[in-house]
Amino acid sequence: MSTSEILFWFLSVLALFSAIMVLVSKNPIHSVLWLIVVFFAISGHYLLLNAQFLAIVNIIVYAGAIMVLFLFVIMLMNLNKETEPSRNIWMKFSGVISGGLLLWIFVSATRSAGEIVGKTAMIKEGSIGLIENLGKVLFTQYALPFEISSVLFLSAMVGAVVIGKKQ
Amino acid sequence: MLNDFFILMKFELLPAVIFFVLLFIKVGTAELSNASIIRLANILLFINLVAGFFYNKDGGMFGDMFHTNALIVLQKSILNLGIFIVSLQAEAWLRTHKHVIEFYLLLLSSLMGMFFMISGANLLMFYLGLELATIPLAALANFDLEKRKSSEAAMKLIMSSAFSSGLLLFGISLMYGTTGTLGFAQLPALLNGSNLQVFAFVLLFAGFAFKISVVPFHLWTADVYEGAPVPVTSFLSVVSKGAFIFVFASVLYTVFKPLADTWYHMLFLLSVLTMVIGNLFALRQQNIKRMLAFSSIAQMGFILIGISGSSQAGTASAVYFVLVYVFTNLAAFGVVALVSAQTGKEDITDYKGFHATNPVLAWVLAIALFSLAGVPPTAGFFGKFFLIMAGAAKQNYWLITIAALNMIVSLYYYLNLVKALFMDANASPVPKITFGVYAKLAIVICIAGMVLSGLASVVYEYIYNLSTGF
Amino acid sequence: MSEIPLTHILFVSTALFFIGMYGLFTRRNMITMLMAVELMLNSVNINFVAFNKYLFPENLDGVFFTIFIITIAAAEAAVAIAIIINLYRSHHSIDVEDATEMKW
Predict the structure, then answer these.
(1) Subunit structure of this entry (chain C) (predicted)?
(2) Number of neighbours of residue B260 by Cβ within 10 angstroms
(3) Would you give the DSSP letter of residue B432?
(4) pTM above 0.90, yes or no
């Protein structure tokens, strides 16, 4: 077993375990903290896949910005208490059944897809995920989507300020 | 080159310019009254609508990121018309609102998102446009800031839209994994109908179905329509739905053409479910906005019939129906908006004896309801007629029979409301509603549109000639 | 060169997706529901990067899609949080089952 394989298994188990813990913990603060662990594990996966920029962005944006926002709101509204997880048992049961069925369909579909089975990564050089290449493509080929996302941020900001402001 | 840029992207640039003009007014020092802001915004939106009819060209820009043609121009003009009427009708509600400029900012950014979504020839552009079209709408749904229902509606809208975009993205990621491209031009050649691709397509389809509230995914619709402010509801039900229908039809016809057998059966099943459940639930509603919500779900079922025809007539009838639907549904919502803004009454029982106090509004609402029901001389009849004719081309007469039965069921609840308007007595009817020049203009446009688009057969022929075949 | 087969990564991402979906349906706390949505989006991100790196390394479509998903998730979370704050002001709770003024 090579180092990258060991790392892969470790990160996968960590990601899945913490994802389950996000949903199992009753205290929202614990959920947020487990979710941050998930994000770190996923960033580790990105590093293994040789996408360094994404790994950093993932940590900065998700763990650094979104999760801090979540924590801030939980603290602000003083929601730091145990909430019973309930919803009735049938809901959960049907959730598990339908989720399991979908997963099963997906797995069987993947196994039959010849182009995917048995592929291993063909990462040419170490530079493809680096900022320089990404930046060049982002500001030429992807200029329009970039502009659209700026409009989206502006309008999301307007909306969030109007709604969140105290009357 | 630069000229091309301005002409091809005119529809997206104009809302952007208006957006920034309004934004600068907001952050500047000048204190404008609500009335003057509304006047300015309406004039700008009118210019935006008119400018859409001149100097149009076919072509693409930014590689495969953006393209436009005559049909897309027409679709965008329909949406421009819709947003103009919505803005006219919103005046009664906005007059006393504290955040008028923000309302227009969010409305315009949502419109821009729809335009980019329609023009995008790439799954990335499609996704970005879709999110830009929905996220501001969720904020708008919360614009009755102190009402509990309003924030509930916004919460339901953003949660369901987040879930649906999750499904959509998972589908897109699998589509990318099996084909290696995101471009609409390259995709059809690479679709081979393998299990994984069909699975991806089903997820994509589910994401779409959420947005146009097709039945298993319609649960958010009624709550959001009821809780959101009426102008936002009318925008959601007409402009936003219209945009998604346009994209849905063109994506199915061009990109997923190789999977036509798969989606024909899905469309068949979903359109039957949507019509039946939409109509059955509409029968039992007490709140007029909820009734219109379920009726709009049922109308979506009819549109799916038209799209399932997979022919030139399929696209044309769907676009034509959306045009008719803009006039019809906005006329109905316009009356509801006036009543709701001035009296706060939204129950169907409140509308009893409406004709005695407000004869003009009662007639407008009645004509709109007849058109929604598809009673012959109105535009709604022709809309449904063309949709069903397009669907009938597939020789699937079960679908046609079920559609006809559903039209009868829907007739019952629409006529019930008409009866309440004209015949039922009411001890405390809605008082006389006064309405200003904006609402009058909106009503005149809607009525004229309903009459003209129904009687003038050139409208449908024009749309038919622009539509691409299958 | 990495020796991990693509199917393994896909399995991890799919499992994350369905864990997120399950959480969205079963949890009542709106903030936790929002976290479940973030899980779903992250699983999609893994899918995109993995497909890009394994199958189509010659261009960067998948990586860029991921970047845009991350940005949009941030905007969506901001608006959703604002809505939840507003809801909390009027309902004094962020339990979805307390937000059921409208039914059928």
Answers:
(1) NDH-1 is composed of 14 different subunits. Subunits NuoA, H, J, K, L, M, N constitute the membrane sector of the complex.
(2) 13
(3) P
(4) yes
Q: Domain C6-98: which topology?
A: Helix Hairpins (1.10.287)
Helices A143-164 and B100-119 sit at what angle, rounded to 10 degrees?
150
Which A positions 9-48 lie with beta carbon below 8 A of chain C? 12, 15-16, 19-20, 22-23, 28, 31-32, 35, 38-39, 42, 45-46, 48
Whether domain A1-83 has CATH 3.20.20.140 = no
pLDDT one-digit tens code per residue, C48-103: 998 888 888 778 888 899 999 999 999 999 999 999 888 888 877 777 766 666 65
Say which amino acid occupies B189: A
Tell me how far apart the alpha carbons of residues C59 and C56 are, in angstroms, rounded to a whole number. Answer: 7
- What contacts B349, CB < 8 A, 6 or more positions away? B286, B420, B426
Which secondary structure element, helix H or strand E, spans residue B105, and what is its range? helix B100-119
Domain ranges of chain C: 6-98
Residue A78 CB contacts under 8 Å (≥ 6 apart), including other chains: none
Under-50 pLDDT residues of chain A: 124
The structural domains of chain A, with segments of one domain joined by +, span: 1-83, 125-167
Q: Are B163 and B143 in contact (CB under 8 A)?
A: no
Query: How far is the C-alpha of B458 from the C-alpha of B8, rounded, in Å?
Result: 26
B67: helix, coil or strand?
strand
Angle between helices B312-343 and B437-455 (to 10 degrees): 150
Give DSSP secondary structure letters for A71-96. Answer: HHHHHHTT--S-----S-HHHHHHHH
The confidence score (pLDDT) of residue C1 equals 45
pLDDT for B151-209, tens place per residue?
A: 889 999 999 999 999 999 999 998 898 888 888 888 888 888 788 888 889 889 998 89
**pLDDT tens digits, one per residue of B429-448:** 778 888 888 888 999 999 99
Alpha-carbon gap, residue B267 to A5, rounded angstroms:
45
Q: List residues bridging with B68 in a β-sheet.
A: B59
What chain B residue is nearest to A117 in terms of C-alpha separation?
B178
Q: How many other CB atoms are there within 10 angstroms of residue B363's CB atom? A: 15
Q: Which residues of A touch C44 (CB under 8 A)?
A: none
Identity of residue B203: L
- Assess contact for A4 and A49: CB atoms under 8 A: no
Is residue B338 scored above 90 in pLDDT?
Answer: no
Taking Cα atoms as reference points, which of B251, B98, B435, C94 lies closest to residue A28?
Answer: C94
